[in-house]
Amino acid sequence: MDLDLPHKTSYRVIYGDTDKMGIAYHANYLRWFEMGRTEMFRHMGLPYGEIEARGIFLPVSEAYCKYIASARYDEVIVVETTIDPAVRGGMKFDYRITDEKGEKIVAAGYTKHAVMNGEGRVVRPPEFLVEAVRNFLGG
Amino acid sequence: MDLDLPHKTSYRVIYGDTDKMGIAYHANYLRWFEMGRTEMFRHMGLPYGEIEARGIFLPVSEAYCKYIASARYDEVIVVETTIDPAVRGGMKFDYRITDEKGEKIVAAGYTKHAVMNGEGRVVRPPEFLVEAVRNFLGG
Amino acid sequence: MDLDLPHKTSYRVIYGDTDKMGIAYHANYLRWFEMGRTEMFRHMGLPYGEIEARGIFLPVSEAYCKYIASARYDEVIVVETTIDPAVRGGMKFDYRITDEKGEKIVAAGYTKHAVMNGEGRVVRPPEFLVEAVRNFLGG
Amino acid sequence: MDLDLPHKTSYRVIYGDTDKMGIAYHANYLRWFEMGRTEMFRHMGLPYGEIEARGIFLPVSEAYCKYIASARYDEVIVVETTIDPAVRGGMKFDYRITDEKGEKIVAAGYTKHAVMNGEGRVVRPPEFLVEAVRNFLGG
């Protein structure tokens, strides 16, 4: 998690995200990781919908989240997302969620994804995906 | 809503269903209506998955819920479901949610559904569906 | 629903909002109504959190949604929200969800809300709320 | 994860749990972990609501899930839950999700929880909790 986390997207916590402890329910953070990942793909010039349109799917194979502070009702959270360049075969995204000003770390985590074709079989990451990642990571 | 509501299914409210007001978030009731509807179809001998396997889909076209009491964390709620026999073309289901003992009405509502084929076109309800409903309603 | 719907907020549909029919699951529309309502309150200069801080809660007492078109993955939807001026005692909000360009109506509906104090008792809408609404509706 | 996982609870996947890939959306597994944990506490004779009533809260501090197979619409999943006896201070629960027959492992994971008092401060696990866990683990 000492990578630069170059892409940022924000979201405002709604009532429906909270639970009776008065804070955002922990499962929702995985939704926010998805938001971060999706917007990062769009920023890369390769919206996730286009990846699927080309017959490639990236189902989540692992997810981890460390809850550091609490996200509260009506707070704006910022999701920072990057790609772990060390992972081949599949993909790994690292996330950090902060408050609106980026001063307080709310949560951090990652998701790992298989690269699959339309028949649900694991395949090598196709060249268009490898190249988009390479460009994004600035190599 | 003065129909008999002959089919019952139950569910226990989890933390993730609640919001910061300490009660179940209102959107979740539509999930519970789905649970009631699904179990009613299974009880009819026609699981919803089988309807889809036969190429028929029942997307929701309208949903209404009146929230009468509050469903709280860890309470068991009971969803009573029936079919409105007056509706032709599409389908309408009526729901009543009570506490575990059936003494307190928590909510009541309905959903209306289109009958569609796999291409997303509205079709006449197929005979296998009409017959299953007729048997269920005891006519 | 022939009112002007003066406040607009937008949201991008995520994977977690969709269901196996490939479209947004119907219960999520009530979350989007909440987003519209919340942003309208903020726009009125009276964020909902401030209403609660003053000891007033607005639990949903009824919700209705008519699903007209489908909201699909990665589409931006726009939630238009207004207040029904005819309703006294409680509050009623009308919603219209359109596509990003405002050309296609995706859904329309309303929610009704009780006005409650911190003990869960129904109260008359307090003056600060009545006045904020009056200003918003331009009277 | 080579512990016995002695407590089991089951759940049927609804339409609202699925996503457009046709399988259960990954964030929902954390809800199912909650169901497993909750039912295990009830089985221990110490429902989670009672823990809170005694002024102790167990917010999630970490969550991890490995997705091994897919949970599909209308399938019954079984959540097996146990407590990791090696963790002191906080609590750690291990989960395994299988199909209805227990033949196929669908997912596995864990959650870690802080032990907090009503003011949100981390405290030592109170004796009533330590004892309930000890009894459950058969020591």
Question: What this model shows, in words?
Answer:
4 copies of one chain form a homotetramer. Chain A is of the alpha+beta class and 139 residues long. Chain A has a single domain (7-136), classed as Thiol Ester Dehydrase, Chain A. Chain A is built from 3 helices and 7 strands. The first copy, chain A, has helices spanning 28-43, 48-53, 127-136; strands spanning 7-12, 56-57, 60-67, 76-83, 91-99, 105-113, 116-117. In chain A, the strands form 2 sheets. In chain A, strands 1-4-5-6-3 form a 5-stranded antiparallel β-sheet, with helices on one face. In chain A, strands 2-7 form a two-stranded antiparallel sheet. In chain A, strand 5 and strand 6 (105-113) form a beta hairpin. Chain A is elongated, with a radius of gyration of 15 Å. The two termini of chain A are 19 Å apart. The model of chain A has no long low-confidence stretch (mean pLDDT 94). Chains in contact: A-B, A-C, A-D, B-C, B-D, C-D. The interface between C and D is small, with 11 and 11 residues.
The secondary-structure element order of chain A is EHHEEEEEEH
Spatial ordering of strands, largest sheet of chain A: 1-4-5-6-3
Structural class of chain A: alpha+beta
Count of spatially separate domains of chain A: 1
Per DSSP, what share of the residues of chain A sits in E-state strands of 2 or more residues? 25-35%
DSSP strand count of chain A: 7
The number of helices of chain A is: 3
Corresponding CATH superfamily of chain A:
Hotdog Thioesterase
Biggest chain-to-chain interface with counts: A-D, 19 and 19 residues
Estimated radius of gyration of chain A: 15 Å
Uncertain residue ranges of chain A: none
